[in-house]
Amino acid sequence: MPVSAATAARRARAASGLVALSLGAHALLSLPACEPREAATAAAKAPAPGERAPAAITLLYTTDEHGWLLPTAEEGMVLGGAAEMLAVWRSREGHCAGPAPGTPSRLPPSPACQDPSTLALSGGDNWTGPAISSYFMGAPMADAMARMGYAASAFGNHEFDFGRDAFLQNRTRSRATYLAANLRVTDPGLSAFALPSFAVFERRGLRIGVVGLATARTREAAAASRFEGIDFQGEEAALSRAIPEAWRAEPDALVLVAHQCQDVLEPILARHPEWRLSFVGAGHCHRRAELRVDGVPLVNPGWRLRSYARVSLEIDPRRPLQSRVVSASTEVVDVAHPEGAPAAPPDGALATAAAGWQRALDAALGEQIGYSRDGMERDSAEIQRWIAGAWREQLGVDLAILNKDGIRQAVPRGPITKATVFSVLPFDNKLVICSLQGSDILETLRHSDAVLVGLSPSAGGRYVLYDGRLLDEERRYTVATIDFLYYGGDGFRFQAQDPSPRWTGLDWRAPVIAWTKALGTSSSAPLDARFR
């Protein structure tokens, strides 16, 4: 279900007064002042090769940023951060930043940006993550993307998490071109969501073609109802059509940014050396990888803006089409430094904007509702019992079921605020109560991503409920879950098992906040100790 108008209005009001929040400032899609001319159709032709000189172009590739604007501290290291990454791009790569949030979009470019040599690209899933982005429906991350000068992004499966309208607004704010060779709009009324398969960007007088790809499983990996009227073709078939189209635009180099795992892309690339790609950026699965497939770099730099792929392309436009890239070298660069050690100053404009969003978040969700002494890891049994246990207790059901991947980050040590819950559970899911037979529950238990709370294994291969009753395969039980899973997300079958559930209308975070607050935990009686 999309975010309601009331929810959107409430979140927008919470951020009133912040720089760059007004959508009116970005009503027209415009490029940063130092952004070179772009041609997104095959009709645009390059100048004659003899008129242009060889040059080196640097691609800066990230993926699955998921709204991680701020750096995080782990095991003595400070990792990532949008302002921190932009500072590295500017000092190390000579990258040209976009305008600061809240400033006019068209300013005279600085001398260094008259002829930039870098191209910033993303593999998609840009803004759903910590509360500083998710609570404001992705707007803070979209503003950060504009400042960081992203030229294009693949379409990720979480791009519609805050509804279709929010995607259009964030796309405008980000100033990035979204690409998806396999996205097909089947409803004529949704023409605004038709995305180009590729775009061509000019750097140093050279033309870089960028093809974009979404995962063919976008509808299964997000709330399917948000994609009514939109279909996703298989990856290989879509690329077999789009890549020849892109070459007809006569780029000097052609690269692919894909919201798909390297494990899926590798065999596809191996079957198609005729595509003559110079770089492929993978994403979606959050696993770092540096591969070569028949000489083509295939890189996933990891997620959360902690690292980026630096791709150096040596291009000679005097050579024949499809053979102008003389060399392509890659490096994954980590944005990290030891805690307490001197570090390069972050980009000031982006750091200032992030601080403003943080103040607005603190005002809206800063109330402390509990305390964790040791923290709870993202994949821990403790965090699962906390979330699903709150549903079971607050809704008075027999069992609660959620998916492991719905939990997006750990609970840190110290005070737990409402913002903590929004960061752990960033998606706008609603709770639904199903009536399931014991046999249905056992089937769900075998799902690799399922978390069941209120049920424990017993002797003889049986299962026992929290109150001591043995699970009876013929008996029906009340089960709380979320609408994403009910409608088949991640392959769950709740809709077939109970076609007439009870819709609560509750946001899935509400019982967690209410129950945590009611427990009254503190440093002397911490929350995490209750679940060990």
Structural summary, described in words:
With 532 residues, the chain is of the alpha/beta class. It is 25% helix and 25% strand. The strands form seven sheets. A seven-stranded mixed beta sheet has the order 1-9-10-12-13-15-14, with helices on one face. It has a six-stranded mixed beta sheet with strand order 7-6-5-2-16-17. The chain is globular.
Helix content: 25-40%
How many beta-strand segments?
Answer: 27
Strand order of the largest sheet: 1-9-10-12-13-15-14
Largest sheet: 7 strands, mixed
**What structural class is derived from the secondary structure elements?**
alpha/beta
Per DSSP, the total helix count is: 14
Rounded mean pLDDT score: 90
Helices and strands, with pairings:
Elements: H1 5-14, E1 38-39, E2 55-62, E3 72-74, E4 77-79, H2 82-93, E5 118-122, H3 131-134, H4 139-148, E6 150-154, H5 164-174, E7 177-179, E8 183-185, E9 198-203, E10 206-213, E11 230-232, H6 235-247, E12 253-258, H7 262-270, E13 279-281, E14 289-293, E15 296-300, E16 307-315, E17 325-334, E18 336-338, H8 348-365, E19 368-372, H9 381-395, E20 399-403, E21 414-417, H10 418-424, E22 430-437, H11 438-445, E23 450-453, E24 455-457, E25 463-465, E26 476-482, H12 483-486, H13 494-497, E27 502-507, H14 510-519
Helix pairs in contact: 4-5, 9-14
